[in-house]
Each structure stands twice: as structure tokens, then as C-alpha cells.
Amino acid sequence: MRALNKLFPDRPFTPDGHLVGSIGEVIAADTYDLTLEKCSNAGFDAKTQTLRTVEIKLTGGDSVSVSSDCNPPEFLIVFEVECEDWIHRDLQRRISSRAVEAKERQ
Predict the structure, then answer these.
(1) 48, 34 contact by CB (below 8 A)
(2) Are 77 and 55 in contact (CB under 8 A)?
(3) What is the DSSP code string of 4-73?
(4) What is the pLDDT of residues 2-32, one digit of tens each?
(5) Which of 3, 12, 44, 54 has the fewest CB atoms within 10 Å, counting from its CB?
(6) Domain span at residue 15?
(7) Given pLDDT bands bounded at 50, 70 and 90, which one contains residue 106?
């Protein structure tokens, strides 16, 4: 978790409800070139490069819920976890490539 906190300091990677959500958010941001909002932003998690709103969910189940307290986001991205190893393999690959990129910039 320390490695994730170093790469994404604005996201909490604590072993509570934030962990799964933060993992989904950083994967979506990296994959789709999104700009993440502050944690627990009302109504959406990120914006596209054209400033359209995006809600991001990561689930191991069959459904997700989106808050109805605000205007609905323009896009919804849902990642489904099919096995425990998937998260580990994907994050390890992303962390490794980010670490290499960070070293190259120094």
C-alpha cells in the first residue's frame, strides 16, 4: 500500500472501504486519461479531457450503486474483479511501469 500511496498521494489506500474504490479510480484514470477529483467528491470521481463527468466503480459482485443525491455523471465506468489475482497482477504491472517512468524523469 505504501507504493500506491507514493504513486497516487491524493488517494487513500487504507484497508477499509476506500481501498477498493481508490484502486478502481486510479486504474480508470490511467487507462482512460482521466483527471481524478478529490476523494469523496459528490456525484462523480473524475473528468475526461473534455471536462465530462465520470463515476468509477470496482466490484466483485453483480451490481453497483450510484448516488442519487446529485446530478448523475455523464459516464459510468465499472470494473469487475473476476479473481483475487487480477488486482495484484494488474496493479503490480502498473506500479512497476510508473516506478520506471518516475526514475526516467529524475
Answers:
(1) yes
(2) yes
(3) HHHH-TTS---TTHHHHHHHHHHHHHHHHTPEE-STT-SS-SEE-TT--EEEEEEESSS-----SSSPPP
(4) 787 788 888 777 766 677 888 899 999 999 9
(5) 3
(6) 2-105
(7) low
**pLDDT band at residue 103, thresholds of 50, 70 and 90?**
low
Strand partners, 54: 46, 75
| Amino acid making up residue 81 | V
**pLDDT per residue as tens digits for the range 41-58:** 888 999 999 999 999 998
What are the cell numbers at 91?
A: 496493479
Q: Which of 32, 44, 45, 50 lies closest to 71, judged by CA?
A: 44
- Predicted confidence at residue 9, as pLDDT, reads 83
Residue type, 34: L
Counted domains in the chain: 1
Question: Which residues neighbour 48 within 8 Å (Cβ) at sequence distance 6 or greater?
Answer: 32, 33, 34, 35, 54, 75
